[in-house]
Structure formats: C-alpha cells, structure tokens
Amino acid sequence: MKKKIIAILILFSIISSCEKDDFCTLNPVTPNLVLRFYEKASIDDLKAVTRFSIIAQGKKDSLFINQSTDSIAIPLNSLTSETVYILKKNETDNGFLADNQTATLTIKYEPENDFVSRSCGFRVIFNNVSFEKTGWIDRLSVNQVESIKTQNNAHVNIFH
C-alpha cells in the first residue's frame, strides 16, 4: 500500500511539474517594411514594376530578381539606424542590362527592442521612420512614418 501511494505521489509530482508548450504565433516577429507601387498620375491605380530587382546597399544578393510586382515586404537592418536599397526596373521586353533604371530608397529609423513573450523573444519596432528617394521614383505617399510595428498594411506608396 505504501509503495502504491509513493508511486502515485511520484507520478503526480512528475505530471504536475511539466510545463505547457509555449509557441510563438507571430511570423515574422520583427515586421518588414511594406511598399506598394502606384501609377504616378493616379493615387488609386496600382502599377506593377516590371523586371524588378532590389538589393541592399553593400550586399551582393538580391531580395527579388526579375520580378513583376505591385507590392513587396523588405526587411530593415535592426542593428543600424539606416537601411539603403537599390531598386532596379526594366520596362523593355528582352531588355539589356544597360536598359535598367535604378532608384535608391533610403530608410532612416530608430530601432527599439520590444519583448513579446518567452517563446517569441524580442522583436524590433522601428520608430520615427523617414524616407529619401532618388531615380525613377516620382514621389512617396509619406516622408515620415511614426512607427513600424506590424506589416498588415502598406507603410509607403511609391509612385512611378
């Protein structure tokens, strides 16, 4: 009888000491910058960028290569206060490399670490976000965004 009680107590203590699994449901934890591309003459007409490539300044690998898209989500460098992207497009079918048009998008921000949960860890929120542009980008919908906390909607509309 004592052995059964001891076995039950040991089993009970093992079961009660187990911890619930904790899963992170945020994906990604740190939000990306979401860009939408529009026709420069209209604020309502989406316009895909043809044969589009984007590369972070100082990097060798492109995030997108030869895509046609009207929106993208790009990561920001959480270790610095500025990220610079070089955007290339080519509107000519069977175009040559010399036909590429380039633009530069500079994003300046103040990164802030935000604790989400034990399973997710920390995420980075980007505060006081401002933008500068050159090249084929006609205009941006905003020059400054208060903060980037999610990536549910576009943060910036690019008119070209």
Describe the overall structure:
The chain is 10% helix and 48% strand. It contains 1 helix and 10 strands; from the N terminus they run H-E-E-E-E-E-E-E-E-E-E. A 6-stranded antiparallel beta sheet has the order 3-2-5-6-7-9, with no helix packed on it. A 4-stranded mixed beta sheet has the order 4-1-10-8, with no helix packed on it. Strand 6 (101-117) and strand 7 (121-135) form a beta hairpin. The mean pLDDT is 84.
Map the helices and strands.
Elements: H1 2-17, E1 33-38, E2 49-56, E3 62-69, E4 71-74, E5 82-89, E6 101-117, E7 121-135, E8 139-140, E9 144-148, E10 156-159
Parallel strand pairs: 1-10
Antiparallel strand pairs: 1-4, 2-3, 2-5, 5-6, 6-7, 7-9, 8-10
Arithmetic mean pLDDT: 84
* Structural class estimated from helices and strands: mainly beta
Secondary-structure element order, as H and E? Answer: HEEEEEEEEEE
Described by the principal axes of the CA atoms, the overall outline is elongated
> Which spans of ≥5 residues are poorly predicted at pLDDT below 50?
none
Radius of gyration over all CA atoms, rounded:
24 Å
**Main β-sheet: number of strands, strand sense, barrel status?**
6 strands, antiparallel
Distance between the termini: 83 Å
List keywords for this structure.
mainly beta, 160 residues, 1 helix, 10% helix, single chain, 10 strands
